[in-house]
Design brief:
Layout (H helix, E strand, L loop, with lengths): L13 H4 L8 E2 L6 H10 L12 E4 L8 E3 L4 E3 L2 E2 L2 E9 L6 E7 L4 E9 L7 H24 L3 E6 L3 E6 L7 E17 L2 E16 L2 E10 L4 H36 L4 H16 L11 H11 L7 H17 L10 H19 L6 H12 L2 H7 L4
Antiparallel strand pairs: 1-10, 2-6, 3-4, 5-6, 6-7, 7-8, 8-13, 9-11, 10-11, 11-12, 12-13
Length: 387
């Protein structure tokens, strides 16, 4: 979630932010190297999935604070994912093929596709999940092997695969996994001038989520620039967080309820801190905070120093919680108005402040109340003094 300098989250959730939450990496097929698997895929015709054009339709791109939802799985895909921007969404007519979301980093010349499609295999045990990931890997490598047979690649080399498992959210919601398959490809580019061979690196990351495969395929030029590998790794982490996003949203919705029950009390403030930490982890939420919101609380602190020494944080907290809560509503409105939602939450908290402190008054907050009624919050905030 994107915050301005004034909107930093109160704390972090280390379990989600660090890779330590992932189980220790193990060799996926005991002593079997991925190179051996690739050769098997090339030799066994039955494992090869032929690359072909499939019928389907392009879908509208996601918008800021309005992600695209894959209806069958419930996964959400935002307009921007780390340093990548969504360049297209395609839904296949054949349900078994699912959908694909393309993300691009044009500056670094990296293309990434995220496929979401049904997994028909049983997923009741850890072994079931591992077998499903292996099946998806065999299919993906089979497709690449077929492309090599057709002359699109002159060389295909695969590194050793690794397999991790991690817990879904909330606690007790089951597990997911991540299978990592590194590849190096020699691509033949054909043009009127002839053929040019280009060395590419490709990364395949396969996740399992509630009866669906989620496959990230990312291809980029093989160069010495470490920025490419770093960008791809950060994108892969974000895709992993997309798998956690539905659970994150459930946790955030619970914190919203707790906060609204007592926004000025200790429990409410703790819930707000937890909510902001969760929102910061989310790869889907994006919220830019107008720093002028902080001036509203400063005015209250100046007028009632003893009674309202935390007013600045209370007002800022309310604005952010209101905007985040509006981002969690499903289905989202055609044009989400997060500043309006944030300001409406501020007005509720301001009303509670006045109940316990009848002498409390703020001309700026009264102006904001009028803007809320007229649905002109964004314009009102721009007229507030910066400090």
């Amino acid at each position: 979630m994107a915050f301005s300098a004034e909107g930093g989250a109160e704390g972090r959730i280390e379990l989600l932010a660090k890779d330590s939450a992932i189980d220790e990496k193990v060799n996926f097929w005991q002593d079997v190297k991925m190179k051996q698997l690739l050769l098997s895929c090339l030799l066994l015709v039955g494992l090869v999935v032929h690359v072909r054009a499939a019928d389907g339709r392009d879908l509208p791109l996601p918008e800021e604070n309005k992600p695209w939802k894959h209806s069958a799985s419930g996964l959400l895909f935002p307009l921007e994912l780390d340093s990548f921007e969504c360049g297209g969404i395609f839904e296949y007519d054949e349900a078994a093929l699912g959908s694909v979301v393309r993300y691009l980093n044009e500056k670094l010349r990296i293309r990434a596709d995220v496929y979401v499609y049904p997994c028909p295999l049983p997923l009741k045990t850890d072994d079931d999940m591992k077998n499903a990931a292996r099946e998806a890997a065999e299919r993906a490598l089979g497709e690449i092997g077929e492309m090599k047979r057709l002359g699109h690649y002159t060389k295909v080399e695969a590194g050793e695969a690794t397999y991790d498992t991690f817990d879904l959210l909330p606690e007790g919601s089951g597990k997911s996994c991540m299978l990592n398959v590194p590849l190096e490809l020699n691509l033949i580019e054909k043009s009127d001038a002839g053929e040019v061979e280009q060395v590419l690196r490709s990364v395949i990351r396969i996740f399992i989520y509630r009866g669906h495969w989620v496959k990230l395929r990312c291809t980029f030029p093989k160069e010495e620039d470490k920025k490419l590998a770093t960008a791809v790794e950060e994108l892969a982490k974000k895709v992993r967080l997309l798998v956690l996003e539905p659970g994150l949203r459930t946790l955030m919705q619970k914190e919203v309820v707790t906060y609204r029950a007592d926004p000025l009390g200790e429990k409410g403030r703790e819930a707000a801190g937890s909510l902001l930490s969760l929102a910061e982890v989310s790869p889907v939420l994006s919220l830019t905070i107008n720093e002028r919101i902080a001036t509203l609380g400063e005015e209250l602190e100046e007028r009632r120093k003893e009674r309202r020494k935390d007013a600045k944080l209370d007002i800022l907290r309310a604005y952010i919680i209101g905007a985040v809560a509006a981002s969690l509503v499903e289905p989202l409105p055609e044009t989400p108005n997060l500043p309006q939602a944030g300001a409406e939450e501020v007005m509720k908290v301001y009303a509670q402040m006045k109940k316990t402190d009848p002498k409390l008054q703020s001309a700026r907050l009264d102006e904001l109340a009028a803007a809320v009624a007229q649905k002109k919050v964004a314009q009102c905030l721009e007229l507030l003094p910066a400090k």
